Amino acid sequence: MAEKEAPASAQAQGDGKLRKQIQFADQQFEFQRRPTIKGHRSLSRSISQSSTDSYSSAASYSDSSEDEMTPREKRCEEARVHEDFCVKNIEQSGFGRREVEIAQQEMPALMALRKRAQGDKPLAGATIVGCTHITAQSAVLIETLIALGAQCRWAACNIFSTQNEVAAALAAVGIPVFAWKGESEDDFWWCIDRCVCAEGWQPNMILDDGGDLTHWMYRKHSEVFRKVKGIVEESVTGVHRLYQLSKAGKLCVPAMNVNDSVTKQKFDNLYSCRESILDGLKRTTDIMFGGKQVVVCGYGEVGKGCCAALKGLGAVICVTEVDPICALQACMDGCRVVKLNEVIRQVDIIISCTGNKNVVTREQLDRVKNGVIICNMGHSNTEIAVASLRAPDLTWERVRSQVDHVIWPDGKRVLLLAEGRLLNLSCSSVPSFVLSITATTQALALIELYNAPEGRYKQDVYLLPKKMDEYVASLHLPSFDAHLTELTEEQAKYLGINKNGPFKPNYYRY
Length: 510
Description:
- The chain is α/β, with parallel strands linked by helices and 510 residues long.
- The protein has 18 helices and 15 strands.
- It has an eight-stranded mixed β-sheet, covered by helices on one side. A seven-stranded parallel β-sheet has the order 3-2-1-4-5-6-15, sandwiched between helices.
- Helix 4 (136-147) runs parallel beside helix 16.
């Protein structure tokens, strides 16, 4: 396939070289394999289970009316199958381009990468297939990868988070994008397949969020998958799935675990959720938080961010935890640590942040009071047992976009947000600056895997080195006019480190 020119907005001029030879320590982790959950499908809505396992990001509900043709159907109806994209409305590209330009102002590290590495083109020859949230922020990442020499094809990892105008903006400058808000489950997999399979196209890199793309290629296009040079995965769900493949001896491609990098955990997971949880709840429910009884399931970085935001507006917070260290942190932060069953009858809001499954069960939902708000801040839709709510004795009533009343026979109603999917990206937005940190880490991981000499990385999952985390952080400091103190040779020798870093040992927790 002939190499496409990068869009004009992705063509920043600059010099210097970015390519770095980074050594990664082999680290292996074992995770218990999670069983697949089988759901039921109805004509109006389906439990969105992937054909691979229970972590699917596909969904069945669309805000469009049932008789409206989908972009995929229109593509065939209007004989536009030759077009190498499928979006809701290409005429919205102008609006999407302006949104991308706004995001660029808050994503300084990616713009710096374009200036520092464009002359070197460290991704020249890379053919990247991506499956992430398609937002203005991810568009800045995609166009940065193209500016660095890559060719890209892209699908959405979550059908509620796609910004149609941004997808149109990418398609308008020649980037093959297959995504629209409100895809059906079948459309979700069709879009991924269109990104993987195209005439004259052989992807050699994968950028994934949640693992659906990786598993689709592994199971449906194994020959294509085996020719990939590397995988970069950013979500806890996708990382679990990679470790499962590695443990089973089935991972035939080196993979980078971006999710557990310091910059992802401490910034995207914590600070992003601290701001976006309030935005998502306000937009969907117009709720006032002062005095509300809230239970947050999980006190990892996502849970910490959610609790900090809600406490700041006067909510009364309880936390559920399985990890005694996280539980102790919650106690020291002034939260009450409980079992969900102990408070289930009193709470006003339940927020899941664990990355697990069946954290909030049907039996527990049967006991909540009228008007409780249920939502999820984890990546996949398995934390709340939504499948159990698709029962004949319960009635679903759409209130507004991404808000459903689930009505019990006695008239009790609960508000379920985004059908149990990721609240902030489904119902609101995430700060561009925080996403700049994660996106820069993804870009550097792709560059490292693509340029690594043969044999450096085996068929395993690798963590990012601390030096790379420090580099990502340093690219963002100029935005705050921050000036780092420099160690003297004597000080560095006293600490036993290089004066240029890394400044902390690998076991340092921040």
